[in-house]
């Protein structure tokens, strides 16, 4: 049996991009690489069920370089050929990612641009008109020297332990799997200087509540007060780790989301997603997968009644699917 070759992969700094890079990461693994991921602290929880080690990237340059040097030292001790080949793949486009690798003595590959090509062992051109998932996939293909088509679904893994914790959170609130609407109304920051937040979200949630729908919101640390102020009728599940959030998304009847990281998580785990889209380029950034329905109008935004109608259509299917999943889980193997 051929021993897998260690490969350092620098993740991007955003949840959505990390989810979209999963097919590329699996492709690298399938072609004989043992991944050592470097990224933000939340990546450990997000990717917990995938089983890859995640090294949390420090903030300062000196600390980042020291971390990579120590990781390089350990990997050379495990694999003497590590320093004799390209041993790092950079998913970020930033100059700083390439500089960190060069100062640590790594042989990095990544996309050209940002004036960083001279810091890379090999720089790859970014192809125009690609979805972000395709960009990461094609970078992995270029690194491997192969041609392949990306998968239809991302397949972000959710562990049974994560599902059990998610079921317990729901049970404590008297909520049955498949019988609730999970909303992701926040979209921190802007893309291409455009606002990604559907302005009618508060009105939409008030109408759902008036119609007797159970609405759940899982705010991030910076979103807790906003969730309390804007969505008082929703059941708030605060302080949830991203891995358990993946399970909650999978257990939802339907997820309604802005252009935001949890929308990509929803598509990643194969949950039913109504993705409300505004002015940002959907061809490049929309969630990826067959369970995604894009709701958009050009110009402007989709109306509340249309989204509510889509929810009404989705929930009966979701309840049936949840019952089937529960029955399958209870069947003897």
Record the SSE blueprint.
Layout: E1 5-10, H1 15-20, H2 22-30, E2 33-39, H3 42-46, E3 54-56, H4 61-78, E4 88-90, H5 95-103, E5 108-111, E6 122-124, H6 132-144, H7 160-172, E7 180-184, H8 201-210, E8 214-217, H9 224-230, E9 235-236, H10 242-251, E10 254-257, H11 261-269, E11 273-277, H12 282-285, E12 292-296, H13 304-330
Parallel strand pairs: 1-2, 1-4, 2-3, 4-5, 5-6, 7-8, 7-10, 8-9, 10-11, 11-12
Helix pairs in contact: 2-6, 7-10, 8-13, 10-11
Account of the 3D structure:
By secondary structure, this protein is an alpha/beta fold. The chain has 2 domains: 5-144, Glycogen Phosphorylase B (Rossmann fold, 3-Layer(aba) Sandwich); 160-330, Glycogen Phosphorylase B (Rossmann fold, 3-Layer(aba) Sandwich). Helix content is 42%, strand content 15%. The protein is built from 13 helices and 12 strands. Strands 3-2-1-4-5-6 form a 6-stranded parallel beta sheet, with helices on both faces. Strands 9-8-7-10-11-12 form a 6-stranded parallel beta sheet, sandwiched between helices. The chain starts with a strand and ends with a helix.
Domain tally: 2
Q: Give the count of helical stretches.
A: 13
Low-confidence stretches: none
Percent helix, as a range, is: 40-55%
The radius of gyration computed from the alpha-carbon positions, rounded to a whole number of angstroms, is 21 Å
Tally of extended strands?
Answer: 12
Summing up helix and strand content along with how strands pair, one would put the structural category as alpha/beta
CATH topology name of the largest domain: Rossmann fold
Strand order of the largest sheet: 3-2-1-4-5-6
Going by CATH, the homologous superfamily of the largest domain would be Glycogen Phosphorylase B
By CATH reckoning, the class of the largest domain would read Alpha Beta
Element-level helix/strand string: EHHEHEHEHEEHHEHEHEHEHEHEH
Query: What characteristic shape results from the CA principal axes?
Result: elongated
Estimate what percentage of residues fall within beta strands: 15-25%
**Mean of the pLDDT scores?**
93
**CATH architecture annotation of the largest domain:** 3-Layer(aba) Sandwich
Distance between the termini: 31 Å
Largest sheet: 6 strands, parallel
């Amino acid at each position: 049996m051929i021993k897998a070759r260690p490969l350092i992969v620098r993740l991007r700094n955003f949840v959505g991009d990390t989810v979209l890079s999963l097919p590329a990461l699996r492709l690298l693994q399938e072609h004989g690489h043992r991944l050592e991921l470097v990224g933000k602290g939340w990546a450990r929880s997000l990717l917990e069920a995938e089983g890859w080690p995640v090294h949390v990237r420090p903030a300062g340059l000196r600390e980042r370089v020291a971390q990579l040097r120590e990781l390089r030292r350990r990997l050379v001790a495990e694999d003497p050929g590590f320093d004799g080949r390209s041993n790092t793949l950079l998913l970020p486009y930033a100059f700083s990612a390439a500089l960190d690798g060069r100062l640590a003595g790594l042989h990095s590959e990544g996309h050209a641009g940002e004036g960083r090509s001279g810091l890379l062992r090999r720089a790859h051109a970014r192809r125009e008109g690609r979805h972000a998932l395709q960009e990461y996939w094609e970078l992995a293909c270029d690194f491997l020297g192969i041609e392949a088509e990306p998968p239809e679904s991302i397949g972000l893994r959710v562990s049974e332990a994560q599902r059990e914790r998610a079921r317990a959170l729901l049970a404590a609130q008297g909520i049955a799997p498949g019988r609730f609407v999970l909303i992701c109304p926040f979209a921190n920051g802007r893309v291409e200087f455009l606002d990604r937040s559907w302005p009618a979200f508060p009105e939409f949630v008030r109408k759902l509540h008036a119609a007797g729908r159970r609405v759940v919101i899982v705010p991030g640390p910076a979103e807790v007060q906003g969730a309390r102020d804007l969505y008082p009728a929703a059941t708030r599940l605060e302080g949830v780790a991203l891995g358990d959030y993946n399970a909650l998304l999978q257990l939802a009847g339907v997820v309604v989301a802005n252009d935001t990281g949890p929308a990509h998580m929803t598509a990643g785990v194969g949950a039913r997603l109504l993705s409300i889209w505004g002015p940002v380029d959907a061809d490049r950034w929309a969630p990826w997968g067959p369970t995604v329905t894009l709701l958009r109008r050009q110009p402007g935004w989709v109306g509340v009644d249309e989204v509510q109608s889509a929810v009404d259509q989705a929930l009966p299917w979701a309840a049936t699917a949840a019952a089937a999943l529960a029955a399958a889980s209870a069947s003897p193997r």
